[in-house]
């Protein structure tokens, strides 16, 4: 089959839950299912514009692969389940395919993360946000409607491979590319702050890490999920259905490592769920024995061409004897992104931005408080006979005004309004001049209206004491 490589850049956080359920704790996916890309190509009435829609979306002649992490232009692979480490010591790693677990005091299986073919370990980070439903009728948060989203972080890069049969017309391939490329929406809550990605075409070739020279055994690495079915089309976990003619005794169960799951796919067009799918998860490792005697090249070729059903959605991809499962020592090293240590740190982190904003706000408030104090000390005798109610009225004007209009609002009250008789001369001129010169007129006026009555009260108390 022909292959096209697409790269994905997250322009915002992406929410990809592992279940279509809306209640309970739902774990996020650590990959992007190929069905998302199939949906991008088929949506908005594009389905009927293809010359042969059935071949493109249902026959398996076009396969939208799962997307995995991309690190410095290097493709990654879900960490094999045959990798174990000493508990609490992740740097001590053994490959159970070639090394007995008895060499570890307490073995713990790797179940999360990705590796490159050179054994760089990449762990996926998530952001968590607590949300609340909105009650439109009451214009407030909806009761008993709290929920949370775990999202993949903005800025991460991913890669997926589109495979297609040569029988697919050039026009259909061009339409597929047209519908995929550019800025798209992906995942859940796309109408909110989540879901924006950019997809580009990569002209590089697919990385080759398979060894097709067979000895007495073959190691199969499950690159994408497998959905096997028996003769009656019923879902099954039985590995005999990997390919026709495979027998139970040809599978080395002692060294085979599988993880399985079930889920119900939600069909957005039909607005309903499909039948339950049972799948073997990516990262699983299967070992076949007696190769020369029982397993024919035709059986291996069939496995390489795709296993099981739902191939159009990226299921069924298996690697044969990948290099990272060879009989050699395994040393995982954490991926460290290169950076210039002498370069200035840009304010890009949301927490840094928040703290910077709070610091600026604190400085501004201190400046306003200083100006208010100076005004009171200079003019306290001018307003000694003004009543508290008048300062309260001026303060209430701040609730519906802004920096641009607060001076006009105060002027309308003390110069042209009902209080003009008590604010004649220097009283109104001093106040309006101070508001006009302030860098934050609204904050200045509001704080002054709060502090001036306190000054009057303290003056009265001092006079009593005297």
If you had to describe this structure to a student in words, what would you say it looks like?
By secondary structure, this protein is of the alpha+beta class. The protein has helices at residues 34-42, 53-57, 170-180, 291-294, 297-304, 350-379, 388-397, 406-414, 426-437, 441-465; strands at 2-10, 62-64, 68-71, 74-75, 77-78, 83-86, 89-95, 107-109, 114-115, 120-122, 126-135, 140-152, 157-164, 182-185, 196-202, 218-222, 228-229, 235-236, 260-267, 272-280, 285-288, 318-320, 333-334. The strands form seven sheets. Strands 1, 2, 3, 4, 13, 14 and 15 form a seven-stranded antiparallel β-sheet that branches. The chain has a four-stranded mixed β-sheet with strand order 5-9-10-23, with no helix packed on it. The protein has a three-stranded antiparallel β-sheet with strand order 7-6-8, with no helix packed on it. Strand 6 and strand 7 form a beta hairpin. The chain starts with a strand and ends with a helix.
Instruction: Please give the count of helices.
Output: 10
- The level of helicity is 25-40%
Number of domains: 3
State the separation between the terminal residues, measured CA to CA. Answer: 100 Å
How would you state the average pLDDT, rounded?
86
The proportion of residues in beta strands is: 15-25%
Query: Helices and strands: which structural class?
Result: alpha+beta
Low-pLDDT segments? 336-343
Cα shape: elongated
The total beta strand count reads 23
Radius of gyration: 34 Å
Main beta sheet:
7 strands, antiparallel
Brief sketch in words of this structure:
Helix content is 26%, strand content 25%. It has helices at 34-42, 53-57, 170-180, 291-294, 297-304, 350-379, 388-397, 406-414, 426-437, 441-465; strands spanning 2-10, 62-64, 68-71, 74-75, 77-78, 83-86, 89-95, 107-109, 114-115, 120-122, 126-135, 140-152, 157-164, 182-185, 196-202, 218-222, 228-229, 235-236, 260-267, 272-280, 285-288, 318-320, 333-334. α6 crosses α10, α7 (388-397) packs antiparallel against α10 (441-465) and α9 (426-437) crosses α10.
């Amino acid at each position: 089959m022909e292959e096209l490589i697409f790269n994905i850049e997250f322009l915002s956080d992406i929410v990809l839950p592992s279940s279509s359920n809306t209640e309970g704790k739902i774990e996020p996916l650590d990959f992007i299912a190929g069905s998302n890309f199939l949906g991008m190509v088929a949506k908005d009435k594009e389905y009927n514009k293809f010359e042969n829609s059935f071949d493109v979306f249902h026959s398996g002649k076009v396969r939208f692969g799962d997307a995995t992490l991309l690190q410095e232009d290097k493709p990654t692979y879900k960490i094999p389940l045959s990798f174990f480490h000493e508990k609490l010591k992740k740097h001590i790693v053994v490959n159970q395919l070639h090394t007995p677990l008895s060499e570890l005091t307490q073995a713990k299986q790797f179940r999360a993360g990705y590796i490159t073919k050179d054994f760089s370990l990449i762990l996926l980070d998530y952001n968590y946000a607590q949300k609340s439903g909105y009650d439109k009728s009451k214009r407030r948060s909806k009761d008993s409607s709290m929920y949370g989203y775990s999202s993949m972080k903005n800025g991460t890069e991913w890669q997926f491979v589109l495979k297609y049969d040569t029988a697919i017309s050039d026009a259909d391939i061009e339409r597929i590319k047209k519908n995929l490329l550019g800025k798209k929406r992906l995942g859940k809550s796309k109408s909110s702050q989540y879901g924006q990605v950019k997809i580009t075409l990569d002209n590089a070739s697919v990385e080759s890490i398979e060894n097709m020279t067979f000895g007495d055994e073959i190691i199969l690495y499950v690159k994408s999920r497998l959905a096997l079915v028996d003769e009656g089309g019923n879902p099954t976990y039985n590995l005999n259905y990997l390919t026709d003619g495979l027998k139970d005794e040809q599978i080395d169960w002692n060294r085979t490592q599988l993880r399985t799951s079930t889920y119900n796919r939600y069909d957005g067009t039909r607005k309903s769920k499909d039948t339950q799918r049972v799948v073997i998860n990516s990262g699983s490792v299967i070992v076949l024995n007696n190769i020369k005697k029982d397993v024919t090249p035709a059986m291996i070729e069939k496995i390489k061409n795709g296993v099981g059903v739902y191939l159009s959605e990226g299921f069924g991809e298996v690697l044969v004897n990948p290099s990272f499962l060879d009989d050699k020592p395994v040393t995982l090293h954490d991926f460290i992104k290169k950076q210039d240590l002498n370069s200035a740190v840009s304010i890009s982190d949301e927490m840094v931005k928040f703290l910077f904003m709070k610091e600026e706000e604190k400085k501004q408030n201190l400046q306003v408080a200083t100006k208010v104090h100076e005004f009171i000390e200079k003019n306290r005798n001018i307003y000694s006979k003004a009543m508290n109610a008048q300062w309260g009225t001026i303060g209430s004007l701040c609730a519906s005004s802004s920096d641009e209009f607060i001076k006009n609002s105060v002027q309308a009250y003390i110069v042209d309004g009902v209080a003009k008789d008590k604010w004649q001369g220097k009283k109104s001129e001093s106040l309006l001049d101070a508001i006009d010169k302030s860098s934050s007129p609204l904050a200045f006026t509001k704080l002054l209206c709060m502090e001036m009555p306190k000054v009057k009260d303290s003056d009265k108390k001092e006079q009593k004491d005297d």
